[in-house]
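ok new one. same drill as before - structure tokens go in, u give me an amino acid for every spot. 251 of them this time. try not to just spam alanines like last time pls lmao
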């Protein structure tokens, strides 16, 4: 479009006079400058759209990881509660069998004739105590199993839910192409391979991955109780200054 607009103007200027020659040179220089600006603007706009698309995919991937993490937590809750349920079911079966044996001893387990009355009293007292304890064991095991199931349902429905993103979060992940018009001019017309991205100059290059903040403060010459000067606000982690640091996000 620019060439089609400039070419008729270029051809309409006569080539006889030196003044016209200078005019042609000025128009050519202006056209070259406008073309360079247009190329830089288009290059940076494509980079902006590509970076924002990658950022959106990154956000979606983080949401998927959060969903898988929540699914693992829900499986852990089911496994832990399931152990209690299985133990209580085993206790119920064993206690029920022993309870049946106690009833059988009450009805058919008679002592030999001529047994002293005091021994018969102890025998009946022991069977009655065993019957009551086993009956309580069956009842408490059933109650514990029901409580475990109710606790599992409560945990899964109220505390460990799948992280469903809200409409506001989805809107924050979206980037309109018109947003490129809101970035600063230095980003719109940035020359490739010139300058440095704002996110790369935020941390020292010789910092180990496992270095803690106190160790980093000592490396910077700061006191243990705090730096001499207040920390300056961090630069944006992306070249377009449209994002915030990951430690300030809830992802």
């Amino acid at each position: 479009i620019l060439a089609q607009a400039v070419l008729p103007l270029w051809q309409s200027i006569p080539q006889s006079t030196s003044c016209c020659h200078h005019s042609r040179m000025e128009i050519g220089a202006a056209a070259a400058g406008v073309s360079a600006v247009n190329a830089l603007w288009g290059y940076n706009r494509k980079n902006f759209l590509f970076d924002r698309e990658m950022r959106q995919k990154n956000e979606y991937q983080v949401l998927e990881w959060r969903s898988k993490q929540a699914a693992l937590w829900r499986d852990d809750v089911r496994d832990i509660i399931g152990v209690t349920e299985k133990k209580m079911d085993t206790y119920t079966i064993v206690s029920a069998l022993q309870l049946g044996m106690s009833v059988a001893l009450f009805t058919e387990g008679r002592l030999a004739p001529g047994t002293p009355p005091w021994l018969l009293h102890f025998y009946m007292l022991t069977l009655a105590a065993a019957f009551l304890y086993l009956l309580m064991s069956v009842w408490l095991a059933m109650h514990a199993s029901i409580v475990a199931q109710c606790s599992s349902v409560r945990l899964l429905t109220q505390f460990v839910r799948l992280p469903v993103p809200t409409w506001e979060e989805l809107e924050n992940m979206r980037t309109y192409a018109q947003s490129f018009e809101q970035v600063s001019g230095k980003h719109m017309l940035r020359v490739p391979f010139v300058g440095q991205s704002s996110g790369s100059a935020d941390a020292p290059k010789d910092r180990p991955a496992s270095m803690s903040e106190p160790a980093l403060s000592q490396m910077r010459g700061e006191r243990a109780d705090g730096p001499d000067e207040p920390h300056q606000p961090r630069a944006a982690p992306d070249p377009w200054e449209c994002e915030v640091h990951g430690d300030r996000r809830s992802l």
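The first helix runs from residue 2 to 12. and btw The chain is about 65% helix and 0% strand.
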